[in-house]
Amino acid sequence: MKILFMGTPNFAAIHLRALCDYAAECGDEIVGAVTQEDKPRGRGYKLTPPPVKVAAMERGIPVYQPATLRDESFAELLSALAPDLIAVVAYGKILPRNVLDFPRYGCVNVHGSLLPEYRGAAPMQRAIIDGKKLTGITTMLMDVGLDTGDMLLRAELSIENGDNFESVHDKMAALGADLLKKTVDALKNGTVTPTPQPDGATYAAKIEKTDCVIDFHLDANTIYNRVRGLSPFPLAFTHLPDGNILKVVAARVDADGESAEVGTVVALDGAITVACGKDGRERLSLLQILPAGKGRMNAADFIRGRKIALGDKLS
């Protein structure tokens, strides 16, 4: 089988490496890797290749970075590569009909949720933010809709209470890479039947800045889930009394206390403990933070620097 891979971030690069190992074992051929264009990153805005490009070059796979998939030049590339299957993992662009219809085995997508839940751009983050205990990977045959294609294989993953986006991402990447190999194998052997998605679809919109704002009027568990769903990036945040942003890397829910004004710092015992909930009785302790203009640090170091005091209000 000739396989064309399409993907961009590190999540996709992990899948590409696994697919290369699988292809080498089975005698298949990865004919190319299509990824997005290099982009300027960091303080120096240095032009940086996407992780999939790096992974492909490590394995000697031709890399293609088309500005669009809708012109004649990409159609000619498809004809030249003649893939039997296109594997798509977090590519970041919508595939037009002529691309979807090209390979005889179709375009297979690895999606980070148990479809039809959490279609869209941020399924892992949204599942954690919503306090879900179970998520997983679904492989599907792509169609013109947004994650609406027929399902192929699924694998479940428990979200533990201490998980954040980083830990779930890493576990999901390993799970998805294994499921992609199984899906390709099943398609070749004719042992999988595409299944339409059931009713009950939900949508996981991409993370916006408004999603990162901490509202201490919410209950402690809801805020805690938001913090871990957005860590290590882009991070939930609040504001210090001087107006500076304080981003939160890690937090914990503590036992309720006496009623206090919502958002007030009520304890500084190695962590910044804040009153939250409707009546200010619930407690959320900020353990690791990112102050404006500083690096990430433990809350205890921030406290020792006298950057915060009892009675301060975070808003």
Explained architecture:
It is a single chain. By secondary structure, this protein is of the alpha/beta class. The protein has helices at 10-26, 51-58, 72-81, 97-100, 123-129, 165-189, 220-229, 299-304; strands spanning 2-7, 29-34, 39-41, 46-48, 63-64, 85-89, 107-111, 119-120, 134-141, 151-158, 203-204, 236-239, 245-254, 265-267, 272-276, 282-291, 297-298. Strands 5-2-1-6-7-9-10 form a 7-stranded mixed β-sheet. Strands 12, 13, 14, 15, 16 and 17 form a 6-stranded antiparallel β-sheet that branches. A hairpin with a 4-residue loop joins β3 (39-41) and β4. The longest helix has 25 residues, at 165-189. It is elongated and about 65 Å long. 40% of the residues are buried. The model has no long low-confidence stretch (mean pLDDT 97).
Helix and strand topology:
Elements: E1 2-7, H1 10-26, E2 29-34, E3 39-41, E4 46-48, H2 51-58, E5 63-64, H3 72-81, E6 85-89, H4 97-100, E7 107-111, E8 119-120, H5 123-129, E9 134-141, E10 151-158, H6 165-189, E11 203-204, H7 220-229, E12 236-239, E13 245-254, E14 265-267, E15 272-276, E16 282-291, E17 297-298, H8 299-304
Parallel strand pairs: 1-2, 1-6, 2-5, 6-7, 8-11
Antiparallel strand pairs: 3-4, 7-9, 9-10, 12-13, 13-16, 14-15, 15-16, 16-17
Helix pairs in contact: 1-2, 1-6, 5-7
